[in-house]
Amino acid sequence: MGIEIKIEHLTKSFGRQMIWDDVSLTLPAGEISVMLGPSGTGKSVLLKTLIGLLKPDRGSVIIEGTDIAGCSRAELFEIRQLFGVLFQDGAMFGSMSLYDNVAFPLREHTNKGETEIRGIVMEKMDLVGLKGAEMKLPGEISGGMRKRAGLARALVLDPEILLIDEPDSGLDPVRTSFINQLFVDLNAQIDATFLIVTHDIHTARTIPDNIGLLYHRHLAMFGPREMLLSSQEPVVRQFLNAQRVGPIGMSEEKDADELAAEEGHELPPLPPIPLQLEPSNGIPRRSQRAPGEWCRANGVVPPAGSFTDSISPSAIGV
Ligand SMILES: Nc1ncnc2c1ncn2[C@@H]1O[C@H](COP(=O)(O)OP(=O)(O)OP(=O)(O)O)[C@@H](O)[C@H]1O
């Protein structure tokens, strides 16, 4: 049931530009984790490092006992078979039909015959709601459909780990809700370990088991959803509640004058923690915990009104 990814002391820079330093976290097997952070904090760089497309300066990424950061090319090739990746734009080949795009990894990485490939492609296209659109070209469909086609392609090799980069970029709120429900349903069905990079606060508050926040060249916090949604840590609190008051400014960090101007400003109370999105068939996720379980176990009083009902995005000001 999914595979754990253990990230230890990971550091990455490009020339003299430090992206992040000493990042350590464990993505629990079979759970959904979301990574947040202001633009340019290196979320996509992290995804690329996890799959071995970028090499860190220091640190390790341990998957099933192998360190991605230091393994041989042959080992990396093996480990990559465990991954499915959904890039921001779906990364479709423009001149190929959706069918051929989705079939591509099977034709490249397996010896399966066309009959078997057809069965798998049709099953995955059905799973993402694209049955009937097989012969369309990527340019003929909407952004949401392209993302779903990218997801079908990411699924054909039955990944144990799914890395998803900004699935909601360019999608309207309704399409975003549909794709989020699809992730939760898929997670329940295939038990893979999911890491989703997003800017969408509503997604981050309702989908994951765990949330991480990259800020100012380090990992500010990573842990269970309830831990971050009840956190009073200024950066976490500001980002997860989409507030202007706090250390994060327009150009990442506020300067001393901006912070001084905020002194004495009372912070609004933390909004209620919403219920987690459940699989649409009503069967709980394998990693599902009772609402409020983390808060109770850790003696944290959740914000008033938490876990009563699904909270609408407007209730948290997004
Ligand atoms: N191959 C590369 N060579 C040099 N610099 C790079 C490379 N890839 C990324 N960067 C730099 O790393 C920084 C982080 O980029 P990244 O795309 O990971 O940010 P992000 O947090 O995903 O941003 P956004 O939320 O806007 O998508 C940026 O300053 C970017 O220019």
Automatic annotation (TrEMBL):
<dbReference type="GO" id="GO:0005524">
    <property type="term" value="F:ATP binding"/>
</dbReference>
<feature type="domain" description="ABC transporter">
    <location>
        <begin position="5"/>
        <end position="241"/>
    </location>
</feature>
<dbReference type="GO" id="GO:0016887">
    <property type="term" value="F:ATP hydrolysis activity"/>
</dbReference>
<keyword id="KW-0067">ATP-binding</keyword>
<dbReference type="Pfam" id="PF00005">
    <property type="entry name" value="ABC_tran"/>
</dbReference>
<protein>
    <submittedName>
        <fullName>ABC transporter ATP-binding protein</fullName>
    </submittedName>
</protein>
<keyword id="KW-0813">Transport</keyword>
<feature type="region of interest" description="Disordered">
    <location>
        <begin position="255"/>
        <end position="291"/>
    </location>
</feature>
<keyword id="KW-0547">Nucleotide-binding</keyword>
<dbReference type="InterPro" id="IPR017871">
    <property type="entry name" value="ABC_transporter-like_CS"/>
</dbReference>
<dbReference type="InterPro" id="IPR003439">
    <property type="entry name" value="ABC_transporter-like_ATP-bd"/>
</dbReference>
<dbReference type="InterPro" id="IPR003593">
    <property type="entry name" value="AAA+_ATPase"/>
</dbReference>
<dbReference type="InterPro" id="IPR027417">
    <property type="entry name" value="P-loop_NTPase"/>
</dbReference>
